[in-house]
Design brief:
single chain; alpha+beta; 10 helices; 10% strand
Length: 266
């Protein structure tokens, strides 16, 4: 694997830039989300097969047609390009995180710096409430809990976990992933929590290939029941229906922006 760019950071010194994107605070929500998305995509590209690339990014087909080569060769070259990019960025990220771990984690970095944001995902941090950690008896006051929804994109099928509860699988995991992606997109556009838009039942029926809005409501209800079941299995009072997946009449569904935090691993 070509890793020719890894280890050459001395040729691009930080003092040449006004902002060191790794350790200086990124002030805007949109700036932070764009920087994290760059790293997520790199890890995603590192894991993708040629088939995965076509499924997730079907527009690649248009690029293949413009290369003047056979479809298989064109796809191979585009896949290798993305694989090299993903590997180079991910190797550098892992090296920096290893250095961070050796010096005590992310706590010494400014809030909002890229390494601290990534480090919080790896080493943990105070930006969320894990109900079992914060309430050792396992029975938190529900009004005090902010539920952390974790998306693990390091596998072809995204794994969705709720901190303190466990993994939400199957179609219910897909429900949470859909709302988590919308949540992250709203953050990336700089929306305040109270302004996070909902996803309409009509749009969800198309996205999930369902035949009616009633089928959407049933799928959301199934996801809510699975979350409650996980809570009961852990001895935790189940969250209210709208504590994690919120429904605003005449608007649609979203992750409750006041009660949830989304983190991704990619």
């Amino acid at each position: 694997m070509d890793q020719s760019l890894v280890g050459l950071e001395h040729t691009d010194p930080a003092e040449a830039y006004k902002t060191d994107i790794l350790v200086d605070p990124l002030e805007g929500v949109q700036d932070r989300e764009m920087a994290l998305a760059y790293l997520r995509n790199a890890r995603l590209f590192q894991q993708m097969s040629e088939t995965d690339l076509l499924i997730r990014f079907p527009e690649v087909t248009n690029a293949v047609a413009d290369l003047g080569q056979t479809k298989s060769e064109g796809l191979r070259r585009i896949h290798q390009l993305h694989l090299r990019h993903g590997t180079q960025i991910s190797v550098l990220r892992d090296q920096l995180l290893a250095q961070l771990h050796a010096t005590g984690g992310a706590s010494g970095l400014p809030d909002g710096s890229l390494l601290r944001l990534v480090g919080q995902d790896v080493f943990g941090g105070p930006s969320f409430v894990d109900p079992l950690r914060e309430h050792p008896g396992g029975r938190p006051q529900q009004a005090d809990v902010r539920w952390r929804v974790n998306l693990d994109r390091t596998r072809p099928n995204t794994r969705v976990l709720i901190a303190g509860l466990g993994e939400v699988g199957g179609v219910s995991g897909n429900v949470l992933e859909t709302f988590a992606d919308a949540h992250l997109a709203a953050q990336g556009r700089g929306h305040a929590p109270e302004d996070h838009p909902c996803v309409s039942a009509g749009d969800l029926s198309k996205a999930w290939a369902l035949d009616s809005e009633e089928s959407v409501r049933k799928r959301v209800s199934t996801a809510r029941r699975q979350i409650k079941k996980l809570a009961r299995q852990r001895g935790i009072t189940p969250p209210a229906d709208d504590a994690i997946i919120e429904n605003l009449p005449w608007h649609g569904y979203r992750l409750n922006p006041a009660r949830t935090i989304v983190r991704t691993k990619a």
